[in-house]
Amino acid sequence: MCLCAFLLLTGLIFLSQSVYALQSGDFYYTVSNSTVTITGITSQACQLTPTEVIPATINSMPVVSIGDSAFHGCTGLTSVTIPDSVTSIGVRSFQDCTSLTSVTIGNGVTSIGSFAFLNCSKLTSVTIPGSVTSIGDYAFYHCIGLKSVTIGSSVTSIGNSAFGYCISLTIVTIPNSVTSIGSYAFENCTGLASVTIPSSVTSIGAEAFEDCGSLINIVVDASNPAYSSQDGVLYNKTMTVLIAYPGGKSGGFTIPNSVTSIRESAFFNCKGLTNVTIPNSVTSIGIDAFYFCTGLTSVTIPNSVTSIGAGAFYYCNGLGRAYFNGNAPSMGAYVFYNCSINFTVCYTAGSTGFTTPTWYGYPTAACGQPTAIELSSFTAAPKAGKVILQWSTESEIDNAGFNIYRAESNVGNYVKINDALISAQGSSTQGAAYDYIDTNVQNRKTYFYKLEDTDLNGKPTMHGPVSAMPRLICGIGK
Q1: Confidence tier at 409 by pLDDT (50, 70, 90)
Q2: Which of 184, 205, 247, 259 could be disulfide-bonded to 161 (CB atoms 3.0-4.6 Å)?
Q3: Domain boundary among 370, 405, 421
């Protein structure tokens, strides 16, 4: 054989090993520099073989990588074992393996690619070994059955949306090796109740814990140089920026006087938030800051605030009034979009920048400040042929009394149902308990109620709504 023919032949052999997929058993693979990348699996095995053990070697060459989309959409796969020889798991490598319940990741893997296990809906637990240094964007996104994750001690970065929509996830431990947590990293992890941020984390992306409806506690290690926490709320180190309020907390909240900025989506979908006190130190309220806080009925914007981001109070459909203590700040679009049907911007006499009859499209009135009522509870209890409304206050200043309003939908037309003002019983130092029985109702029909307190000058403040469906109990009208 001439030298040219020999070189051509060896070149073709090398090309076939480098570019064209070869097959060994169920697996397709390529070879580069005497190492193997698994690139796919036979269609029959993809759909019909429940357990796959990826070999550590093929033809005496080490298997070092799971290629992009190698097992994508293998709906028959229930269990997979990745050997220690593998160092990287590629992009979308196991995406949409919707029957996958168990994965063993070898101790040689250093990176898990973006979308690697996206939508593996039956995966219940994952142990990420100590060899892994990075978890890619959307790596375990929408693994809705995932209940627990053990993250190895070498991981330094958790990618954007890495565990987003893992709605069954209840426990995750972030090791002290992690320095960055991506945006939306744990978005909509509705089963997560508590998160601890170690001292190593110096970067947390936007809305990392957004829409975690059971989350009540974010704890930051005291030695962390970038972040801090107080009463379960996440701040920057100096507590000048409020970053995230846990979505599962309920009741009222007073923002500390050190805070100057409320970060975007800080209170996103905090439906249990009933009132918030914003101090005079705050100058800016971020985009979507209080988005979908349906429990808010009124909010006071201090005169220190100069800007309010777009959608800041979007879809706060219980919000009846926003009281502005100072001149009009700059505002983005849709700040109070889809608030209560009777929503009003209230400004003080002598302030500038507000227009009538509307400002940014919202009705305005020079209605001053709300009454100083600290409401501790407002409930509706269904009975047969009636609804019992009860509320209590911690204190009352200049309160004349209360009115009850009822509607047949959350955002419906609320109509006053009490004949006369329910007289105030509390004082500035002592609250009181009240009740009202609504008998003009039908069983098996849901009613919505709002409570209005009115000050001595006739200025009202709305609270609620709450709802109840009256019904027969064992055929007895109790």
Answers
A1: confident
A2: 184
A3: 370
> Could you tell me the sign of the dihedral formed by the alpha carbons of 359, 365, 366, 371, in that order?
negative
> CA-CA distance, 71 to 112, in Å (whole number)?
14
Identity of the residue numbered 299: V
Other residues' Cβ atoms within 10 Å of the Cβ of residue 24: 14
Asked if 268 and 366 sit in the same domain, the reply is yes
Q: Are residues 411 and 379 in the same domain?
A: yes
CA distance 170 to 158: 17
Q: Is the CB of residue 138 less than 8 Å from the CB of residue 114?
A: yes
- Could you tell me where the beta strands, DSSP code E, fall in 25-183? 27-32, 35-41, 51-53, 57-58, 61-66, 79-81, 88-89, 102-104, 111-112, 125-128, 134-135, 148-151, 157-158, 171-173, 180-181
Which CATH number goes with the domain that contains 384? 2.60.40.10
- Domain limits for position 275: 250-370
pLDDT of res. 457: 67
Task: Check whether residue 333 and residue 400 sit in a common domain.
Answer: no
Distance CA(72)–CA(39), nearest Å, equals 10
Is residue 443 within 8 A of residue 475, CB to CB? The reply is: no
Q: What is the mean pLDDT of the chain?
A: 90
Domain boundary among the residues 311, 335, 370 is at: 370
Region 354-375 average pLDDT: 83
- Determine if the peptide bond prior to 357 is cis (ω within 30°): yes
Whichever domain contains 309, its CATH number is 3.80.10.10
- Angstrom distance (rounded) from CA 240 to CA 256: 9
User: Taking the CA atoms of the chain, what radius of gyration do you get in angstroms?
Assistant: 30
Number of domains in the chain: 2
